[in-house]
C-alpha cells in the first residue's frame, strides 16, 4: 500500500523539478571532484579546472591601471565554462567554498607578487579578491589570511577584500570584530555591489570600510535615468566625506565613463575598459600602464 501511495505521489511530482535537482546534484559532485584536483601547493596541475581571470580597475582621472579584480572561472570538462553566479552558491551551501576560496586567495596573491616584481609602480599594483558571507564566518579566517600574505610576501595594503553589502549588513558582532581585525592588519575592505543592499548610508560608519564599489545596476542606468545619476553623485559625495575610495562597476559605454569622471568617481571597471582577461593578457595590459587612453583612441577611430 505504502508503495502504491509512494508511486502515486511520484506521478504528481513535477518531472522538470526532478531534472533540475539531478543537475544540481551532478554539479555539486563535479564541483567536489574539481576541488579535489586543486593543487595544495602552487604547482600547476595539468587537470586543473579552475583558473582566475583578472579585470582591470583603472583610475578614472589618470587612466592608469591601479589593480585587478580576481574572478573565478570553472572550465567544466563537459559543460564548458560555468559562471560563478551558478556554482559559487552551491559551493557556499556545501561549504566547498572554504577550500576553493583559500585557493583563490593564494593564487591571486601569488600572481600579484609576480606582477609587482615585474612592474613596480607607486602605489603598488593591488588585487581585489571576492569573499562571500560564508567565508567571513570561518573561525580561522584571520590566521589563514595572515599565513597566505606571509607566504606570498606582498605588501598587506595591496590586498583588497570585496564583501557584498548584504553580507556586511548581516554581520554579527564577532564577525564585525573580525572585519576590524582585518582592517587593523592593513587589509583594504571593499563593499561590493553597493546600493543593492538597501543599507542606510548613515550606517556605513559603523563598519571599517575603505572602498565602495557602486553596483553595475546604477551605472547602467546613468544614460537614461536622471535619478540614478543623482544617486551616484550622492554616493560619491558621501564616500568622499568619509575618506573612502569609490569604484564604479560595469562601465559599458563612453557616456557612462565620461559621466562618472564628471561626478568625480575615483576608479572604474567594466567591459568598455576591459573584459576580465586571463593572466597572460593581464600581463600585456600591465606592460601598457595607460589603459584608458588606448580605449578612448580606439573609440574615436571607430
Ligand atoms: P562581482 O564581484 O560583482 O564581479 C563583477 C561581475 O561583473 C563579474 O562577473 C564581471 O565579469 C562582471 N562584469 C564586469 N564588467 C562588466 C560590464 O561592463 N558589464 C556586465 N554586464 N558585467 C560586467 P563574474 O566574473 O561572472 O562573477 C560574478 C560574481 O561571482 C561576482 O560578482 C562575485 O560575486 C562572484 N565571484 C566571482 N569570483 C569569485 C570568487 O573567487 N569568490 C567568491 N566568493 N565569489 C566570486
Ligand atoms: Mg566583486
Ligand atoms: Mg560587484
Ligand atoms: Mg556581484
Description:
Helix content is 50%, strand content 18%. It has 13 helices and nine strands. Strands 1-2-4-5-6-7-8-9 form an eight-stranded mixed β-barrel, surrounded by five helices. Strand 2 and strand 3 (80-82) form a beta hairpin. Helix 4 runs parallel beside helix 6. The model has no long low-confidence stretch (mean pLDDT 89). It binds ligand C2E and magnesium ion (3 copies). One magnesium ion binds at residues 69, 130, 162, 192. Residues 24-290 form the EAL domain. This is EAL domain-containing protein.
Instruction: Enumerate the spans where pLDDT stays under 50 for 5 or more consecutive residues.
Output: none
Oligomeric assembly: single chain
Spatial shape = globular
What fraction of the residues are assigned to beta strands by DSSP? 15-25%
Report the order of strands and helices: HHEEEHHEHHEHHEEHHEHEHH
Strand order of the largest sheet: 1-2-4-5-6-7-8-9
Describe the secondary-structure layout.
Elements: H1 2-12, H2 15-36, E1 50-59, E2 65-76, E3 80-82, H3 84-93, H4 97-118, E4 126-130, H5 133-136, H6 141-152, E5 159-164, H7 165-169, H8 173-185, E6 188-194, E7 211-214, H9 216-220, H10 226-241, E8 245-248, H11 254-263, E9 267-268, H12 279-288, H13 292-301
